[in-house]
Predict the structure.
Amino acid sequence: MKILFVTAGCACFGASVFSGPIADRTLPPVERLAAVEHAPLKLVEDGKLNLAIVGEFKKEAAVRGPEGQTLALKARDSVRRGANVIAEALEKCTGMKPVICEPDDPKVSGYPYVIALGKTELSASLGMKPDKLPREGFEIRTFDKGVVIAGMDGFAIPGFYDRYNWRTGRLTCNGTEWGAADFVERFLRVRKFSLKDKGLWEFFPPCRKLTLKPAAYRDHPRFIFRGANHENWRVAISTDFFGGEAPNPMVLAKAHPDKLEEIFYRDASGRLWQDSETYLFNYFDVTNPKLADILINDFRQYYDSDGKDSYWGHVWAPSSRYIWFGQCDRGLIMDTPRAKSFPRADAIPCDVMSEIYGEFYRVLGEKALKAFPDKTLVLMAYSNYLRAPRLFSKLPPNVHMLACAGTPALVRSAAYRRDVIDIYEGWNRMMPEGRKCVPYTYDLSYNSQGLIPQTLRGYFEGEYMRAMAPHIAQNLVYPCNYLHGRGNYLSAYLTYRCLWNPDYDVDAGLADYFNTTCGEDAGRHLVAFYRLLLDGWVKGYVPEIKSGWGSIPAPDFKLLGKAFPEPTVKKLIALLGAAEKSLPADDAKSKARFEDFRRPFSKALLDLVAQQKISFPDLDAEYADCGMKIDGAINEPAWKRMRLPTFKRAFAGGDMKVVNPESRLLWNDNGLYLAVKSPSPYKVGSGLWDGDSFEFMVTGGDPNNPANLYQFVLTPSGKFEDYQMQIDQPRSMDVNFVAKGAEYAVNTNADEWAAELFVPWSAFYDAAPKAGDIRKINLISNRRLPEEEYSSWSPTLNNNRRHEMYAPVMFKAPPAALSSGWKRHPGMPWVFVAEKSVPAKSGDTVTVSFSAEGRGRAKALLFRYDGAGKWNGNSGGTIIDLKPDGSSFTLKLQVEEGKRPTAEVYPAISLFPHSDLFSL
């Protein structure tokens, strides 16, 4: 790596003309200050350190919280941490370990310079006032004896960490630490793109010489709630404002076992949405004002006991200024009479529950205001209650909203911006004048098929924050963007740079990332790769986005394919290939970083091409005309009639071989039957989704324009869930749907796990199908062992509710009933054997007549049967139309020449409700 500013010629800047590191566009812009004139500081000379790192470390270490907590316990010892940042950088860049000591330590006199950290007499003598800086801000000044770095440190400000904030693990305010980080980034070119993977993404360039001329500047983060994921760059939460899904429903239930009916929702079918093992099976009853009383009493108990007698954990614990409530992550549409008393006119999925939540928030806010007049209640707008209610115009003045909407990658869609702003402003109008909602922003999709927008999110983070600035809280944002895939830390890195300062130069940061991680030669190709992604996204995808309704928008995979057609994908693949060839020779780490970046794209790019060429399987559901017992044994004769569908990888790209479970589908006038078998190894999870599972997806109504989608989930642990979503009118997936009368059974052994499922037609909202009808159906296999594998009858690119991608399944006509004189063959209900033999010998023609009742069209074949299991000869097949009132037919069979002479035969008629030939 080129170190452009550690030589005497360019490793400096003057009092009035700034260049070099202070103007480095790959770093956030800073506020330049007038510097004190002094001779150049030769901090590093011929690899020798001419400095000591000093700070009042003993004074800082002596600080204690009300319960004896140390600052180091929660990473709040900003001065010590800042010293460690500089010491690590100097040691790894120069090979020399610096001295860290108190300012009055005799060792200091042995060095011509110091790097002094924190608020000290030295910082005061230079006119620095770190306590007056913005939250987490820092100031860096040079003087004739070295460098002073002093930041706004929470521990140094009386009352900043009160007794409640001392306990929480989320609150830090370390301005001096951030100043130290900025110093080593600017002057030593240190980079930490991620703290994961044992230092693979950290860079400490060699330094033999570091000379500074007079300099002074300051900086601070523009958002003081930047997330608590300390694997990312300069993340911190330096405010006690908080919100989210709290309290934990399972902990709340444990605290109030006698009040479950008041806390949790019981739907119209009688199901109580409370579960002690699976979080997603819990749902607070926000139609019940008693829930508000329980929460208020719990808050009161928390404060009365000084925060000790409570179920609140240290991370979610209320503070001295804020209390909060957030619903479990469900998306239920409540169906009780009280819920239906709050209708929403022209409701869409993101506001069908807004009036219900709005009323509960109003009640909870009023009770909180009365009980805690000095505190603010933080609430969530999320999922199907994302838009503000309309039944009243204002919430109580103590309410603050966390609006879970906003996807930075879509910021350049004018329609999307208008919709998100409308969500923000809807809640702003309900709060006191001057208070604005806090955005809870998202990636576009949280699975691997969202790789492209996830990779691009960081590029648009600053642009999004600038665009939304008039509509959101001044310095608060909750960035939900933690799923980028191993190796692709670029988006998270750019995101947090932009949350520090939305004016950050993302183009410079992009080039810096690739050039540093993979070398400049490979970096050029990777920047070109990224820009080609940007071009397809901005020109091909974003202009087609028409709406921003919803919290986490799902990618439109068909639109992705149009935005990235096959010629573009080939260019992207070629650029990755060129980058790989240009990696620095014999640099294993660069190759490892490149491979981590390339790996997810190797599949995602194939998916983009393959999804345009997906072929759908041709499947039939056989008619179950015999008794069916749902016991997981799968031993009824009817199961054997269906040919086994082939499973394909759920991600369309490539022809990767997958495990092919056995699956069979039957139907009759009663309902729909499914049988599945999946071989070992398999994982039995404690919940619905943490082990192996099958997802059975069925549409209802017109297959080309279905009215409803039904989802049934089976696991080897015996867990079962059913869901429904209205398709012809936009609605959220109804997770409290119950398929009444459904039966299921699961069997497990060392070799496989198997399941049978029966769903009666009466459980569906749609009319039962008739013979010959078609429904779009899919079956998804989710395997966890030996490694995760997702496959299905029809690939849906891991968005299992994409019903337009499901296989068309035809419901086969039931076997016909023949007139007297014929009996069904045991185990072959579609084969009828004459009760009496017919005289015949080789070469003779046998004529038979019969009447048949049935539905639909079938192919009839006449076989010769000797009554002892031997078959030969057939009529060649005749298409007949079966009717419920019976029809008469005559078939002829010629006994083949050369066969064993016989005096008699038993004619056998086989009626097939499909065109395939029957093989004896």
Notes: Residues 588-610 form the longest helix (23 residues). Residues 1-19, 913-920 have pLDDT under 50 and may be disordered. Residues 459 and 506 are 6 Å apart (CA to CA). The radius of gyration is 35 Å.
